[in-house]
Design goal:
This protein is of the alpha/beta class and 275 residues long. Helices cover 34% and strands 10% of the residues. The chain has 2 domains: 1-43, no CATH class; 94-274, TIM Barrel. The two termini are 13 Å apart.
Length: 275
């Protein structure tokens, strides 16, 4: 995965040299706190590391991994096939477009129907010149307030879901209103909210009333930042990132409300420090 779009310069002149350093025990604490300010941290490009990490997952009883790396993030089916064969795992690959900063230069000129056709082809024919088919539409990226091309991308993804029946995964903007708007767009396009996942709920909103309303739409609520134990959240300093214990409190609340069928648990592994 190429996460260079996330990179921002380190705060303050004293730490500028840390941006280009490899991750070591000496700077691991700094990287965990400023994970968007390390060039090395925002790239996941080692097949050997991926195989080693997946082997641990397999040993623990896992079998299937969802990799929603899509267009603009360095998606490459070839290494995924090799990693799956080396580990005996199943890897589900994504399709569609992420945040506006990762879109191709001509995205504004592309019609929604054309984008939808690209996604349908990924799912039904194969990605690029390969026979590897996407099993997921996503992670579709939305900011808040969102960009026009992001809204077009989401509409196209929803249309592709109607055509293929594939599950849809959406990255919401960092505001409680973002998932509400996303659900509305998917519904307008005829998408299946019962096969739609809203990611990163743990950094978006934990208000119980809001969670009840979102679950009532039929969509899945994904808590996918387990293991991220830093309350400081660089992309949005206004967010107080919950601890894993606080995440589990919210998850248990879903069970108490009879909403356990609408909860997904995961790890948003997009940087080296989260491995």
């Amino acid at each position: 995965m190429d996460g260079s779009f996330m990179y921002v310069d380190p705060p303050g002149s004293v730490d500028q040299h840390l941006a280009d350093e490899q991750i070591t025990l000496d700077n691991r604490g700094w990287v965990a706190y400023h994970w968007t300010s390390s060039h090395h941290n925002v790239h996941l490009d080692s097949e050997d590391v991926a195989i080693a990490e997946l082997q641990r997952f397999i040993t623990a009883g896992g079998r299937t991994v969802v990799d929603p790396t899509n267009k603009g993030l360095g998606r490459d089916p070839g290494p995924l096939v090799r990693i799956a064969k080396a580990t005996g795992s199943h890897i589900i690959v994504g399709s569609g477009y992420y945040l506006g900063g990762t879109h191709p230069d001509d995205m504004s000129d592309r019609a929604m129907d054309s984008i939808a056709e690209e996604i349908v082809a990924d799912v039904q024919v194969g990605i690029g010149n390969t026979d590897v088919k996407a099993g997921l539409i996503g992670e579709i990226g939305c900011t808040y307030p969102w960009l026009p091309n992001e809204k077009k991308s989401l509409r196209a993804a929803a249309a592709a879901q109607v055509e293929t029946g594939a599950p849809l995964m959406v990255h919401p903007g960092r505001d409680p209103l973002s998932p509400v708007e996303i659900v509305g767009i998917v519904d307008q396009e005829g998408g299946d909210l019962n096969r739609t996942i809203i990611c990163h709920i743990d950094r978006t909103c934990t208000d119980r009333s809001w969670l009840s309303d979102m679950a009532a739409t039929g969509c899945y609520l994904e808590y996918d930042l387990f293991g991220n134990e830093s309350s400081w959240y660089p992309p949005n300093p206004k967010v107080d990132m919950p601890s894993d214990a606080e995440r589990m409190d919210v998850v248990l609340w879903h069970f108490e409300q009879g909403l356990e069928d609408k909860v997904l648990l995961s790890h948003d592994i997009a940087t080296k420090h989260r491995l």
